[in-house]
Amino acid sequence: MKDKALGVIAVALIAAAPLVSVAAGLPAPFEGSSTLQADGVVKSVDQAKHSVTVLDAQGGEASFTITDTSNLAQIKQGGKVHIRMMRNAMVSVTRGADGHGAAVEPAQQNTVQNVTAEVQVIDHASGIMALKGPNGAVFHIQGREPAKVADVTPGMQVSVAYAPQVSVAVAPAQ
């Protein structure tokens, strides 16, 4: 019951974010996606569970549940693979480059990951933004509609609320 109430509150805050952003003179929230790609060597494959464990070049290990299983039958232990993960996100500008704005962020809940970041670079033609997170790591988000990121500029603070679903594909490395 408590989780359901938190979910309702999160949805309400996300729905209200456009009103707060516009009232504060900030760009309206927009949808985007983040794509991460990596190469590695297969440590193990579980065809029944659609999972693959991969070792990267530095010896790091990660396991993935594959949602796009079209290439899974081709994946074998010891083989080189390319992993592609994509997550949808809702991006809300919380502060302008001048430091003014609304400090409204979507509510935290177990199924949604929220990250606060600063816009470093933005390509308005493609809608791709380079964002710097609180730990200093730079990551990229591509706005679904580049026109909606037209008023976003470097220096602005954003809140990125990732959807809980992750799309993961694996393919033999070329």
Question: Descriptors for this entry?
Answer:
47% strand, signal, six-stranded antiparallel beta barrel, 8 strands, mainly beta, 174 residues, elongated, 1 helix, 13% helix
| Strand elements, count | 8
Number of separate helices: 1
What is the approximate shape?
elongated
- Major sheet: arrangement of strands: 1-4-8-5-6-7
**Rg, Cα atoms, Å:** 19 Å
Structural class: mainly beta
Euclidean distance between termini CA atoms: 49 Å
Element order: H for helix, E for strand:
HEEEEEEEE
Indicate the percent of residues in helices: 10-25%
From the structure provided, what is the oligomeric state, counting identical versus distinct chains? single chain
Number of domains: 2
Describe the structure.
By secondary structure, this protein is mostly beta strands. The chain has two domains: 2-35 and 86-172, no CATH class; 40-85, no CATH class. 13% of the residues lie in helices and 47% in strands. The chain contains one helix and eight strands. It has one helix at residues 2-23; strands at residues 30-46, 51-55, 61-65, 80-95, 113-123, 128-132, 138-143, 157-172. The chain has a six-stranded antiparallel β-barrel. A hairpin with a 5-residue loop joins strand 2 and strand 3 (61-65). The protein is elongated. It starts with a helix and ends with a strand. Mean pLDDT is 82; it is low at 1-23 and 103-110. Keywords: Signal. Residues 1-23 form the signal peptide.
Describe the secondary-structure layout:
Elements: H1 2-23, E1 30-46, E2 51-55, E3 61-65, E4 80-95, E5 113-123, E6 128-132, E7 138-143, E8 157-172
Antiparallel strand pairs: 1-2, 1-4, 1-7, 2-3, 4-8, 5-6, 5-8, 6-7
Signal peptide: 1-23
Keywords: Signal
